[in-house]
Design goal:
Elements (H helix, E strand, L loop, with lengths): L3 E5 L20 E2 L2 E2 H11 L4 E6 L4 H6 L4 H9 L7 H9 L1 E6 L6 H6 L2 H4 L4 E4 L3 E4 L14 H12 L3 E6 L9 E9 L2 E9 L10 E9 L2 H7 L11 H11 L3 E4 L3 E4 L7
Parallel strand pairs: 1-4, 1-6, 4-5, 8-12
Antiparallel strand pairs: 2-3, 6-11, 7-13, 8-11, 9-10, 10-12
Helix pairs in contact: 8-9
The structure holds uridine 5'-triphosphate.
The site of uridine 5'-triphosphate has 21 residues, from α5.
Length: 269
Amino acid sequence: MITKTVIPAAGFGTRMLPAAKAVPKELLPILDRPTIQYVVEEAAAAGITDVLLITNPDKRAIEDHFARNPALEQRLRAANKSHLLASINTLLEKVTVRSLHQHEQKGLGHAVLQAEQHVGDQPFLCQLGDTIFSSPLSTQDSALSTLLPAQQLTTAYNDLKTPIIALEKVPPEKVDRYGIIGGQEISPGLFKLDALIEKPARDAAPSQYAICARYLLTPEIFDCLESTPPGKNGEIQLTDALNLLLQRTAIHGVVVQAKGTTSATPPIG
Ligand code: UTP
């Protein structure tokens, strides 16, 4: 049973400047709530009860969003407007949200490494805090409702008991923008991986399946992260650590049903 998620949200978000100068990109709103609230809602819907946010001291507003605000709640109660905070307060009844600071932005892999003690010896979910997933289908018909990646990954883990990476198919002319996997499709939408290549040249990509912001990781990833040297941009890359992990253990990939949107990059597809 997977109960913990780690949500890296400590990056500078330079691709979203100036929008993300004072407001963290993970807090930029979509409809009535900030991006990262959808990420935590996705985890809660998959049965996660323990959320660890990786933030930095300049992004305290993320932590504030997941803390109760008694003065505001009192004011809303008095005005009969408590429903305005219902979505976040209901979420906070389902999950415990803690945060840790990544003091230097040394990359996504380094952000995940901060979670080592908290995670302990159990498998865990990892969700990038700036990416949400939504159904490409009409949700009018509940029979057609789409599973979000957190649910897909935790369900797949129960069968596979290996690390699992969420995948989205991208057009061939866009493979050079993403981390691309190679491997064998052992059943529809399920791959056993043999390669993970960050932004391959178009003619060298082993597939059209891109790593897409959701991972089901086992604690061995921390050993791998510790021995991963800084890579592209001098950052410790999670993809590099996953390549080390692939030498030790099987890793699977699951094609997600939902469609991802990242605040910093155009949607896949
Ligand atoms: P990105 O790859 O988008 O990096 O991070 P970034 O630094 O935030 O943005 P750019 O490249 O400057 O535009 C993907 C996720 O990993 C987190 C980010 O907050 C985002 O949710 N991250 C990235 C960290 O937590 N720490 C880091 O050092 C880097």
